[in-house]
Sequence to fold (179 residues):
Amino acid sequence: MSLEKIMSISGKPGLFELKNQTRGGFLAESLVDGKKVNVSARHNVSLLSEIAIYTTSEELPLREVFKKISEKENGGEAISHKVSKDELEEYFFGVLPDYDEDRVYASDIKKVVQWYNLLTKKGFKDFEEPKEDTSGDKKKDASAVIKDTISGKVASKGSQKATSSKQGGTAKSTAARKK
Fold:
């Protein structure tokens, strides 16, 4: 499991892992209960590898924040995301002392801690940057699949049906006239 294949889907609890591309989107599996979900272009999807946390000097990728939490907890789980707002902010300040308190809300911290704990429970421990693939494999990465889906570049079967029904329409009407 790679952080590039883990996503959050607006309106759906927990995190999801990208499994396959479908005609009109892609198939994702919930890390919470293992159920598979069809995700289309109308869903608001955020890849964890694309999310960053505001600090006073820069935007820090979520992967780096997860690494810092993992170091603080020695690879174990963090505090519960259900603790009070003050406890969450105090904990996050211990992990990331220069986070921007004006732009990072308690709800954001709650999500980060909840996501970290979910990934840790599922055995995900490697928050390192993925190595570049030099094998020449042209398989699309998860972000490219999602971006293509959102921008409408995924060919839908509906557009293929429209073309084939136009081509076959003449043959059907000719056959119907012969009867």
Notes: Residues 157-178 form the longest helix (22 residues). Residues 153-179 have pLDDT under 50 and may be disordered. The CA atoms of residues 41 and 150 lie 5 Å apart. The chain has five helices and seven strands.
